[in-house]
Design brief:
219 residues, alpha/beta, Rossmann fold, 9 helices
Length: 219
């Protein structure tokens, strides 16, 4: 299956162990190093679970689930059914392995596919897309797809371009790894949300990211 950002697909299909170290507590040393060097990752983790309440009994979709750490954490916190979708087969295989090890495989489903074209057969209470839109050249179709799933909570992160950080990301991803990175402004996000039919939203600015919490349901 071909995806819009094939460079990102190839890259992430090669690094499940490295990527999992960003979230895994099992490797204590790497976890502490990443907490110091990449605080934004853990900030969006805390933001997600703070905003997505209640979790108990909820249905959850994790878009760009990577190694499944968000999806698995939702299951551990009581979600009834969690679906993770990602375009990298190795990430999906890794997610299934971790879910089995964590004892939540019966409530987790992992799919290797494109979220926009995949025919979901149900709505979701919670939809998250963390570290996903960095690699998406056209975000508006994803917003429309999420809105069609009618979530109570939609949480997503978007990188913010700053001079120094933008240069190092351009070198590290586009030049070295051949993985283009995409940026969206607050105004663009507001336009996507309004066009897709979200009823309310909150966009929180952080040093290197915009964190979004939106809803398609009445309070």
């Amino acid at each position: 299956m071909k995806f819009e950002n094939e460079g990102a697909q190839r890259y992430f299909d090669q690094i499940p162990d490295e990527w999992d170290a960003l979230y895994s507590h099992e490797n204590w040393l790497m976890y502490r190093i990443n907490r110091l060097l990449r605080p934004g990752i853990y900030e969006r983790y805390a933001f997600t679970f703070e905003r997505c309440q209640p979790i108990e009994g909820a249905t959850v979709l994790d878009i760009g689930c990577g190694t499944g750490r968000f999806a698995i954490e939702f299951a551990k916190r009581g979600a009834r059914h969690v679906v993770g979708i990602d375009f990298a087969p190795a990430m999906i295989d890794f997610s299934r392995m971790v879910a089995q090890r964590m004892g939540v495989a019966d409530r987790c489903e992992f799919i290797c596919n494109d979220v926009v074209s995949y025919p979901f057969e149900t709505e979701f209470d919670i939809v998250v897309a963390l570290g996903f839109f960095d690699y998406v050249p056209h975000a508006e179709p994803v917003f429309r797809k999420v809105a069609a799933l009618r979530p109570q909570h939609f949480v997503a992160s978007f990188p913010v371009h700053t001079f120094l950080w933008g240069i190092q990301r351009h070198i590290r991803y586009r030049w070295i790894r051949r993985v283009p990175i995409f940026y969206y402004t607050r105004g663009q996000l507001e336009g996507f949300l309004q066009s897709a039919g979200f009823l309310r939203y909150d966009i929180v600015a952080r040093p290197h990211a915009l964190l979004l919490h939106a809803s398609c349901r009445e309070r």
